Each structure stands twice: as C-alpha cells, then as structure tokens.
C-alpha cells in the first residue's frame, strides 16, 4: 500500500506531480486559455465584489492560507486576513452580512476550523471551503467550495495536501482577478500556462531527492533550525519549520528573512543551520544580503535557489535548485525540497515519520 516507498509520507511527497495536476484537471483549459471552478459557479461574482476575504485554518492549512493572502491581494487587489481558526472564534471577530470566509482543511474535520465557520455563518457570512476529503463536515456546512484532489493523505505530516491547497487557492485568486479585471490577459494566460507546467517541474525537483538526503545526513544531529524566506516564500519557510518540528522533533523556527535582524540573528553561530528560500524573484537582492549576514556569523546555510543561479552557490554551504516559474507560483516548487529535508532528517534520527508522537491526522477536539 506504500507503493514501494518506505513511508506514506515519502510516497505522498512523490505523488505531488499527480496530485497537483489532479487539483487542476478539468478546471484549466489551455486551448481556450480559460478557467472554470464549478464549485464556485454561483459565488464568484460575490467574491469579486467583496472588499474583504477572511481565511480560517490551522497548521499547514493556515500556511496555505498565507500563500493565498499574497495571491488574492496581488492579483485580485482584495483585502485578505488569515486567521488561526482557534483564535478567530474566541475573539468576537468583526464579520458582517455577506462577508466571504474561506476555510482551508485537508480533513474537513478540524474542530477549531469547523467552529470558526459556524460562528461566521451565524453572523451572515458566505462560507466557502477548500477541503480534501469529499463529504467531510466542513465540506457539508459550507455554502460552496472547491475540493483539492490530492487523494487520501495518510502520513500525519501534511505534504501533498498543502501543494493541492496552494494550487486551488491560486485558481480561485486567478479566477477572481479575471472576473474583476485586475489582471491583464497576458498575465492571466501566463499563470494558467505556468500552473500547467508545475507538475513537470515538481518531478524535476524530486530527482534531487538523493542529493537532499546526502545534505540531510550532515544535519541529522542539529538541535535547532531556522527557515527564512521573503514574500510568498515566507509562508513556505513557516511550513518548512513546522514539518521539521512535527516529524524530527527538532526545534525550528520560520521567519520572514528581513525580521532576522530584529532578534533571531542573535541565535546565529556555527551550530545554527539556516535554510534560505532564495529564488530569483523580486526579493532576490535583499535575500542575498540576508545570506551574507548569516554567513558573516558562521551560520551553516542550505539555500533553495533558482536553476542556473551562480551567485548564491558561491556564498552558501549547500544548494538545492528549483526550476524557474512565475514568482506567484514559487511556493508550489520551493516547498518540495523542504518536505524532503524534514523527511530524511526524521528518518535518519529514527523517528516514526508517519505517526509522530502526540499528533493525530485530524484534530477533532478544540
Ligand atoms: C501539519 C498538520 C497539521 C494540520 C492541521 C489542520 O502537517 O498535519 O498542522 O495541517 O491540523 O488540519 P486540516 O487541514 O485537516 O484542517
């Protein structure tokens, strides 16, 4: 049932070319350069007219929500707030009739997310779901939604569900932007073609698994890790840190790279591994100087870089390359090497990666 893989988590990491493609299938049509989201047919108008979207989720799904925030704001020019579902409901949140609330949940059974939706619904919000499990509680109480088609996720640490969530949020943001006229036809086409090309690019990254395993060997006994990224790669940094904590039990933190100088830089010494997500995007120059700051303090750096980058490989200890894509689609690529780093470190430490201690696949208690 693990399809020849040692663990479900590894199988699910390797399934991502297909699970991402499945989450787009029947939705993107390249011949006509068009995008259809059947599940939102009656709601896209309302999403396009709203001036505020609230996203509620927990854990990895909350990280996907943060990626969604960048996408909606950049493409559809709409104000987005991403809330931990548990905090949202205990705070007398300001929700008015007709506000759009989107829940993101792999299992569709997370109690905190469910309770946040019930509260939003009682205040008259339109509640939408991005769920993986068909017919789950969240899928049933929402007015409408778009399923991720990642297939069953067995490993407790979420991997393919995350990239499927990011794929679906990209589709919703692009469809909203197209409807509102906030993106050009050229960018619309570029993003649809860009998404279509993602599965093959993920496949290419997965070919670096052996290299990533070799790098991971050198960090097996680290007791801390810092993950840094900017822009859309900031939520990827948070997700990289969460994954490592969950399955290897190594203390890890994710930060926006520019925040480092406001405190965490005090942690940097020769024993501190730092993972930079340092692709050639709008923040490239800035992240190069953040890397210099860490290297000047002897931090050990693993950088996720764009294929063909010649500068960063000279500055850091190890690099893993990802193919080029539109900046807005980068999380679909940059999250993959981080999943593999966590996986290999956890295996090398002898952890039970599919069933980490203290964690359950769906958290149905508040
Ligand atoms: C992370 C993880 C958890 C879940 C969180 C939300 O690997 O598995 O953080 O992401 O409990 O679960 P869902 O998405 O099912 O609502």
TrEMBL record:
Q: Name the chemical reaction catalysed here.
A: D-fructose 6-phosphate + L-glutamine = D-glucosamine 6-phosphate + L-glutamate
What does the UniProt keyword field contain?
Answer: Aminotransferase, Cytoplasm, Glutamine amidotransferase, Repeat, Transferase
One MF annotation (Gene Ontology) recorded for this entry: glutamine-fructose-6-phosphate transaminase (isomerizing) activity
Q: Does the keyword Cytoplasm apply?
A: yes
Please give the start and end residues of each transmembrane region.
none
Location of the SIS domain? 43-182, 215-356
EC code: 2.6.1.16
- Catalytic positions are 361 (for fru-6p isomerization activity)
Q: What is the annotated localization of this protein?
A: Cytoplasm
Protein's job: Catalyzes the first step in hexosamine metabolism, converting fructose-6P into glucosamine-6P using glutamine as a nitrogen source.
Note the subunit structure. Answer: Homodimer.
Name of the molecule in the record: Glutamine--fructose-6-phosphate aminotransferase [isomerizing]
Name its species.
Emticicia soli
Instruction: Report where the shown chain sits in the full-length sequence: first residue, last residue, total length.
Output: 247 to 612 of 612
């Amino acid at each position: 049932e693990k399809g020849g893989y040692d663990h479900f988590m590894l199988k699910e990491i390797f399934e991502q070319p297909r699970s991402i493609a499945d989450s787009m299938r029947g939705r993107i049509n390249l011949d006509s350069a068009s995008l259809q989201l059947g599940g939102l047919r009656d709601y896209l108008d309302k999403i396009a007219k709203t001036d505020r979207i609230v996203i509620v989720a927990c854990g990895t799904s909350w990280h996907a929500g943060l990626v969604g925030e960048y996408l909606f704001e950049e493409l559809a020019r709409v104000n987005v707030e991403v809330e931990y579902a548990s905090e949202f409901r205990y705070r007398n949140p300001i929700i008015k009739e007709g506000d759009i609330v989107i829940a993101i949940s792999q299992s569709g059974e997370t109690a905190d997310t469910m309770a946040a939706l019930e509260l939003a619904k009682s205040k008259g919000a339109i509640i939408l779901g991005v769920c993986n499990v068909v017919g789950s509680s969240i899928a049933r109480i929402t007015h409408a939604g778009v399923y991720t088609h990642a297939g069953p996720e067995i490993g407790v640490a979420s991997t393919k569900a995350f990239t499927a969530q990011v794929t679906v949020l990209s589709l919703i943001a692009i469809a909203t932007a197209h409807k509102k006229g906030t993106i050009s036809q050229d960018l619309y086409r570029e993003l649809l073609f860009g998404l279509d090309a993602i599965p093959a690019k993920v496949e290419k990254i997965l070919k670096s698994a052996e290299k990533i395993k070799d790098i991971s060997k050198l960090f097996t006994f680290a007791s801390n890790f810092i993950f840094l990224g900017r822009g859309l790669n900031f939520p990827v940094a948070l997700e990289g840190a969460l994954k490592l904590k969950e399955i290897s039990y190594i203390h890890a933190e994710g930060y926006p790279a520019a925040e480092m100088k406001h405190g965490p830089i005090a942690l940097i010494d020769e024993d501190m591994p730092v993972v930079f997500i340092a692709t050639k995007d709008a923040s490239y120059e800035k992240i190069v100087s953040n890397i210099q700051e860490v290297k000047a303090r002897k931090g050990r750096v693993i950088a996720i870089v764009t294929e063909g980058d010649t500068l960063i490989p000279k500055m850091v200890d190890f690099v893993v390359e990802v193919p080029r894509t539109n900046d807005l689609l980068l999380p679909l690529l940059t999250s993959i090497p981080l999943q593999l780093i966590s996986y290999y470190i956890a295996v090398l430490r002898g952890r039970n990666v599919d069933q980490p201690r203290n964690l359950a696949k769906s958290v149905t208690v508040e």
